[in-house]
Inverse folding.
């Protein structure tokens, strides 16, 4: 069984204030300062430690790619959200993971935030099958397409363009903070759900391309996935 997932976050402003010692700075100016001091990338996007979880969506699929169950959460009580996610991940003992940049962001984020709230994560997340970079049980599309960093990392949206499918129709990652400030948490979860379905569609195309699934199964699963993706984008 595999769990395809995505996590949406906003900066943990309270924690960031402590780290860079600017207790009175307004959030936007604080974010600019934090981007200069804490980010190690051109975009200024803060590392996982400095974010908090406001939504997540997961899709359970069988090993052959057949979808089984969607689970999700959104809210402002991060501890509640993490508990719901860890409970969902405890549904199956030897699950695998599928994601886009989960190794670089989502999984470290979950570890940091679980530590913050003194919570215990599912033991499976620390298992060799998951931690080993070349594992077939922890599939990061960034690694799969870049040959584990030998080539450049593709954006999920650009993978959609490549296969002729418009992704990111319900929002962009840089809009999440503004949506959060407008109390649009259900909309953030909806955006997250689109990312999960987009990840699933790209994974299906990859599995077919490398010969892991036959055309009949691919066509069946892809038709169903595209129907759901279109439904998400139309809402």
């Amino acid at each position: 069984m595999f769990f395809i997932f995505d996590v949406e976050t906003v900066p943990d402003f309270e924690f960031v204030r402590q780290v860079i010692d600017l207790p009175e700075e307004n959030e936007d100016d604080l974010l600019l300062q934090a981007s200069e001091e804490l980010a190690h990338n051109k975009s200024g996007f803060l590392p996982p430690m400095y974010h908090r979880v406001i939504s997540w969506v997961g899709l359970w699929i069988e090993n052959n790619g057949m979808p089984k169950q969607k689970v999700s959460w959104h809210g402002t009580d991060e501890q509640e959200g993490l508990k719901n996610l860890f409970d969902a991940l405890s549904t199956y003992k030897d699950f695998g993971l599928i994601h886009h940049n989960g190794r670089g962001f989502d999984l470290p984020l979950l570890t940091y935030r679980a530590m913050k709230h003194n919570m215990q994560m599912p033991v499976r997340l620390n298992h060799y099958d998951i931690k080993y970079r070349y594992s077939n049980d922890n599939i990061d599309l960034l690694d799969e397409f870049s040959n584990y960093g030998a080539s450049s990392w593709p954006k999920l949206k650009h993978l959609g363009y490549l296969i002729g499918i418009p992704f990111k129709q319900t929002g962009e990652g840089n809009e999440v903070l503004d949506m959060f400030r407008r109390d649009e948490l259900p909309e953030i979860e909806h955006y997250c759900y689109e990312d999960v379905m987009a990840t699933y569609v790209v994974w299906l195309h990859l599995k077919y391309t490398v010969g892991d699934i036959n055309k009949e199964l691919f066509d069946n699963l892809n038709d169903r996935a595209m129907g759901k993706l279109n439904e998400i984008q139309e809402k």
